Structure formats: C-alpha cells, structure tokens
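User: Hey, my collaborator sent me this sequence without any context and asked if I could get a structure. I don't really work with proteins. Can you help?
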Amino acid sequence: MQDRYVGDLGDFVKYGLLRAIRGTKRLGVAWYLHPDAGPAGDGRHTTYLQHPSEWRHLDADLFDALEELVPDRRSVANIQRTGILGDAVFAADVLAVANVKVRDRERWRRQWFDRIRHQLVACDLVFADPDNGLVPDGRFRPTTRGSAKGMSIAEAKALAEGRAAVIYHHNSRRSGGHLEEIRWLKTQLPEGTMAYYWRRVSNRTFFIINAEEEVRRRVRGFVHRWGDRGALV
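Assistant: No problem. I've predicted the 3D structure and written it out in structure-token form, which is a compact way to encode the shape of the chain:
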C-alpha cells in the first residue's frame, strides 16, 4: 500500500469487501505500507467518483468517505480516521527497506513481520495489502528493495494462522494469464481458500484464507451484490 493509492477504484472494492464480510469480527489491517514510489500515473484511477450513479449504491457511506479524501487528503492515516473500517486495528510500520543495509535486510524484514503479527494478535479477521501481492517463497528475496512491495506465501500463511485472512494480490503477467495464476496461487495456500478476481480497470485478486461458513456466505453475498465487476475463481 502507498498513500497515493488511497481513494482509487482498487481502494473502493477492497474496503467494500472488508466491510461486507467482517460482521462481528475484530478486523486487523496490515498495510504493508511502502513509501510512495513508482510510475507517476499510479493511483490515478479515481474517475469512478465522478460517476456516482454507477458506483455509489454499492456502498454509499464508503463512496462518500473516499470522495472526501480525493484528491488532496490521500493517506493511510486519513483512511484510518474516517472510521470506514469500524474499530479495526491498524499495523502501519513502514516497509522502508531502502534505508537498511543489504546484509541486515532479511533479519529486518523478519522483525518487521513479527511486529505486525504482534500488533494484530487480538484480531480474528486480518487483511494484508502488499503493493504487488503474493510472491512464491522460492522467488521472495528480502535483501532486495522490491521485496518491500510483496508478501511471501509463508508470511500469508503465518498471518492467517488460526483466523480468517484476506490477502491482496496484484495480478501479474505470469504465463497462462490471470485465471491460471489465481488457480496456481490457490494451490500454495491453505485448502478451501477463496479467490475474488476484480476485473475492472486494474486487475487484482483478493484471497480469502481460513474462511468459516459465515465469512464464505458474506463473501458470496458481496460478489452477487457487486455483479459482473468481479467473480469467484
């Protein structure tokens, strides 16, 4: 997650999903907050806010809250202040790995992740928001700067241990296309993992791990309500 992405269309769907499925659970958010970086156009997908007739009915309170933040108040801190995620616990330690010596980065990342887990220990539903999403363990390189934008499969499993978890994944150019990528990632995650594939503007997938029947029912209700904008895979 980066501050400059706040309020874009991806934000609207991810908060909409979390609001729809949390029920009475205590939500914890692991922002995987990264310093703003990347192509200048990133975070520009906010034109949906100019079309309330198409989007606002899906979650009016959320739509209005995000509209208040774009374009001049886009930050994770301001999202937290809106209250759109109820009494959620937020873990916002920045993944500023560029400031860490290469030889220390693997240990630094492990300590960073341990802090995140500790901050969210009382939550029974957690959400992780890495910029680029899931990375197979064999390709995850915590000594590189790029690792700060990803989440290893091992981290996802650890964060989800003993509770439901929603993991953001930005679909890549993996051979075989997005659906094949989603199906393969599901084989790396706990049995029964659900995958909601968002098909508008910038494709992304939300993996729902360790979901008991009530959460699964809420996920299916969300998918039905949001229509052909996305689908379960």
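In plain terms: Helices lie at 9-21, 52-55, 60-69, 76-82, 105-119, 153-159, 178-188, 213-226. You can pass these tokens on to your collaborator as they are.
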